[in-house]
Structure formats: structure tokens, C-alpha cells
Amino acid sequence: MNFILFDDLQIRQSLLPLTFTRPVGEIRIGIQTISEKWQAYLQSEISFYTQDYLQTKFPVILADDNVFINGAVCPTQTLVEAIQQLAPDTALLQRETILAYRSKEAKDTFENTITFEGTVRIIRHAIDIYTHNGEQIINDFQRITSGRTSQPINDRFTAFYNESQIFIEEGVDLKSVVLDATHGPIYIGKGASLSIGALIQGPFAICENSVVNMGAKMRRNTTIGPHCKVGGEISNSVIFGNSNKGHEGFMGNSVIGEWCNWGADTNNSNLKNDYSKVELWSYVSNRYENTGSQFVGLIMGDHSKCGINTMFNTGTVVGVNCNIFGADFQPKHIPSFSWSNGNGTFKTYHLRKANQVARAVLERRGKEFDAVEEQILKAIFEMI
Fold first, then answer.
1. Confidence category of residue 343, pLDDT binned at 50, 70, 90
2. How far is CA 129 from the centre of its chain?
3. Domain 127-260: which CATH number of 3.10.580.10, 2.60.40.10, 2.160.10.10, 3.40.50.1100
4. Spatial separation of the C-alpha atoms in residues 357 and 349, rounded to whole Å
5. Which of 122, 91, 117 is nearest to 8 (CA)?
6. Predicted pLDDT at 327
7. pTM (2 decimals)?
8. Where does the chain have alpha helices with state H?
């Protein structure tokens, strides 16, 4: 079988702005991205059937016998077994959602269907990423660490609780840290650094080569993706990777894409003063929709950055490539390629300048801002 993660178009739309720059299956939740989870379960390479402008970076590989899997679905062993048993030209459904289908080509109608009765975690909305992050950290931790031995904690000034639920990969640097895995596991990826005085509560994951700065407070259900630098206080949030929140300030119930930067003492609200349910901008309806949740922070697309002392209101959505500054609370929706100074009006962040900044940011990390990346941002710019 040849495995392909496809974008459910309705779900992809509801996950914007995060899916402007990636297929749905490249969303990080728990320790790994959804695609990395599927590769581990299937022991097979995965390709992507996604938007045309993303297909060059995330190519689809077709064969005579393909299994298309919904990229918003997190795998379980039971689901994997059901997918592997699919007959040709058959789809696996749960209610009206297509979980997977086996076919020579991509399609959306099927004569033969099977209903999957097991439990399925589908990431339908951006807030689902942090809502279910703790659960996915636990699941990933059990699978990734099964049969393996953690590196020892050699620093005599580091305090740890429930050591069996702490796993440290090679090359990790720990100095006078508190690791509290009482309420869930703590996973520390290769080459990660946890600096003096950092306080870590599980469930928590920090991926390879990321840094937690001195005195930082990492609260439960938080994931720091690879090549990030974080400080201050972070709670129940997911940073996809290659982004920085290096200074003091609070981040809570938030999802941050790649190549983002938070200026010093930036804060986001995650709870309204009247404790009412939070509305969030929807790219499906182009209006604010009630999330049904009291705790909603910030959703920020790739390449967006904010200056020092930025204030984000409860339930704010920031698009791709935004430049944000100013002393007032920011608008609750900042469209992609916008400059926002907090007064409710926007200026266009012109593509040429945005590309210059993106190129400089990637080069600092030893990455190339090539023609493929430039084409993706151009396609997004032309959508707005």
C-alpha cells in the first residue's frame, strides 16, 4: 500500500491561518506532527495530497494501490488495523467524515463504505490543537519511549518527580531545573537545553534543539516544537517550531506557527473578565463564531511577529506574515500580510519586504528561503 494524507477541505478551511502554509497533516499536536505519527504507526513513508500551491513543497506520490488518509485524524492502533484491511475502492467513515479510502486516484464519492466504530481524534478546529494536546503528549510519549531507556539526570541540583514519566534524549543540557511529571509525562528532545531555574509541569514536550530560558515556567499540556527559544510563562499551548518567545510574558491556550517571534513582555489573554464563552474569527464563515470554550488565547500563522509589550485580547487570530506593534490591545482578527499598530486599521505588508524578512530569518537558522517558499507566500498574498 502507498499511503497519502489528504486535506479534508472543510477542516482545512477551519484550521486557517495555520494551514495556509502547510497541509493539515503537518500540524504538530502532542510531541510529533500528525504525519510523523502516521509514519511511525505504518512504518512507511507518507506523502500529501494538498492545495496546488503547496504541492511543490509537499509532493504527492501516487501508485497503483493508494490509501488516502484524512490528514486531520490522529492515528491509533485500532484505526491503523482497520485502514490496512480496507478493500480496493472502499472508504472508511465515521458519521459523515471520511477517515480513509483505498483507491487508484483521489476521489470524494464511494460505492463501498465501512463504518469505523472506534474512538477517533479529529483535529477540526484550531483550538482542538491545544485542547487535546495533553492527551496526544501522553499517547506519543508511550509510543516513542516504549522499550527505550532515558538518559540519566546527572545534575544534582535538578529536582524531579515521578521519574518513570520523564524521558530525556541524547545531548540534553539540564541545570537546576524542576521537572514535575506528577500529572503527566515530560519529554525532552535531542539537544534541548533547559536553563537554570526553569519549572516544568507535565504533560510537556520540548523537541530537538529547543531552549527554555532561565526562570521560565512551562505549565501543563504544552508543546515546544523543534528549534525554538522560550521564556516567561507558557500554559496549554503549542508552538509548531522555529519560533521564539524568549522573554517574560504570558502565553496561554494558544497555537503559534513557524518563524514567529514574540517581543519582550508580550502577553495574551485566555479568559474574559465576565467568564463568558469566547468568540473566534472563522475563515469558513468570515465572521466571529462562538467556540463554546471559556479558555481561548491566540492563533498565529507562520512568519508573524510582534513588538515589545504587545497585548493580545482573548480569542485573537493573526494571519500569515503580520507585523504587530503598538501599546493598545490588538484587534481580534489581523489579516495575513498586515501591519497592525493596535488602532484597528491595517497597512499592507508588501510581499517584497515580507520576503526580505523571511529570507533573513531563515538564514539565521541555516535555512534557505528558496523559490518554493517564495511561491507559497506569493500565493497566500494573492488570496487576500
1. confident
2. 7
3. 2.160.10.10
4. 11
5. 122
6. 84
7. 0.97
8. 9-14, 34-42, 77-84, 126-131, 133-145, 351-364, 371-383
